[in-house]
Design a protein that fits this description.
The protein is α+β, with helices and mostly antiparallel strands. Helix content is 38%, strand content 23%. The site of magnesium ion has 5 residues, from α2.
Amino acid sequence: MGRIRVLDDHLVNRIAAGEVVERPAAVVKELVENSLDAGASSIEVRVEDGGRRRIVVADDGEGMERDDALLALERHATSKLRSFEDLAAIATLGFRGEALPSIAAVSRFFLRTAARDGFATEIEVRAGRIVEVREVERGRGTTTEVGGIFFNVPARRKFLRAAPTELAHIVRTVAHYALAHPSVRFVLEHEGRRLIDAPKAADRSERIAQVHGRELAAKLVPFAAEGSGIRVSGFAGRPVDALARRDVQHVFVNGRLVQDRVLGHAIAAAYGNTLARGLYPAMLLFVDIDPSRVDVNVHPQKTEVRFDRSSDVHDAVRAAVASALSHGAAVPRLQDLRPGTSTPTPLASVAAALTRYEAVAETPVRAYAPQDGVAAPSLLEEGAAAVDPGRRAVPLAQYKDSYIVAQDREGLLIVDQHVAHERVLFERYLKETERGEVHVQRLLFPKTIELSADEAVVLASEAGEFGRLGFLLEPFGGNAVKLDGVPAFAKDVAPDRLLRELLGEAARTRSAATGADELRRRLVTSAACQAAIKVNYPLAREGMQRLLDDLFQTENPTTCPHGRPIIFRLTLDEIERAFRRR
Ligand SMILES: Nc1ncnc2c1ncn2[C@@H]1O[C@H](COP(=O)(O)OP(=O)(O)OP(=O)(O)O)[C@@H](O)[C@H]1O
Ligand SMILES: [Mg+2]
């Protein structure tokens, strides 16, 4: 007898579930996609314990008759695909007939569905086996309930993260689909608390406001372009509002949320050098293209696509985004750039962050700069060349308004002013938080910040940590919070931006499942980075000296908290060898 056997369906479904159902948010994604494919005009998602205990998705779509409902639970049963030709031009979000049987194989599952008001079928499935089929009452539409995900696959259940992390993924998933389908009503509730409440919207900008708040919506620049069979539209964040977070960019191809390198590159190319490295502008990008020109069948969770001529798509996207940026709206207005106005911007905060150095910044530093070669001898006259015994290093000049050229006993130093300041702020702030002695700066005018649903979820679960970090926060109805105070050292960074960056960092850290210490370290790092003086900022000599003094008092003056080097050193020995004096 041969050793090879065909696996039974239950086993096959469970194996497929491993790919399709990565985590509760993946279940939400599949169910919401089914509701959208069914033409629903309202989709309600309710979850408990971050989706780990229960996920319910209810829609008012076309529903199913009893026989179809039973078939829907069979593997490879789909109403969306009939022939090989259909596969080449998929216009629906689902197409494989895999989602429901896979989900049902690893949960306690109910499908309640009616194609006509009042005549509903309820099918109860446990670990992939139908337990009962009954007639129930329900208006037209479908409710799918998924309880105890992975209850029968302990090895997988173990990998579920804490409820807040899983919930954050669910919030993001629902927010994404809500953004892509403004004419559909979306509701998301977690244990009775409404996290997303988006009634049918007139257009996408109204939907953005429902999901992300009016503040963000007002800052985005809309764009739309059409040509060579590709329609590109969306909303672009201004470079000046860019954040050090990738998760502010959402890309949809034919209404499907995807991650795509070609499109990511096109966006980056459109912004070009208006952005500092590591900063990402907010972006909502919708690409609509003939379904036959894009292959959606390339990834188990259907989150990647392949274009037949990706360079066409790339160029269309780059041109459309670039046109949005060239409009006046994307260019920061003058009042945005001036410190002390009501909407502080990164530039304003840089200027303000420098108040410590400002008093002396007036003195022209360039007198010491190497490009003024002749000025160099004056250093000697001032006696600056001799290193003060009480000091580790003294500044000689600032190069390109970004690097401090200094000397110490061993030789020459070139210090990156931004990372040096970041190191100083990082160590001080970390000590303050560890001792519970953070200096808090009360805001003169408390700031109300409308958080996105996923930010609100992160904050709710890390409120204690944000308190320890020196944020004075109070709930302010819905997903809004009132910010009364910030850590004093970062008081000149725009407070909403500071909070948002840290919330993004917290979300990323939590999904990496690190401990509380690591979370704090990363939040402190991010805050220090934002508050630190930037490059391209002239410093006076006294400012440079203070920064060097502070730097050499830190525990690790040579590398920044992100691991980048701070100091480049040329020893006297190396200099002498270079000039063949040795
Ligand atoms: N909410 C719903 N309303 C109406 N019909 C539904 C709903 N959910 C599922 N169905 C029906 O059940 C079938 C199976 O759903 P399932 O999600 O398993 O597969 P699919 O959507 O066809 O493909 P994929 O596996 O790519 O999601 C669908 O093709 C559809 O006909
Ligand atoms: Mg489906």
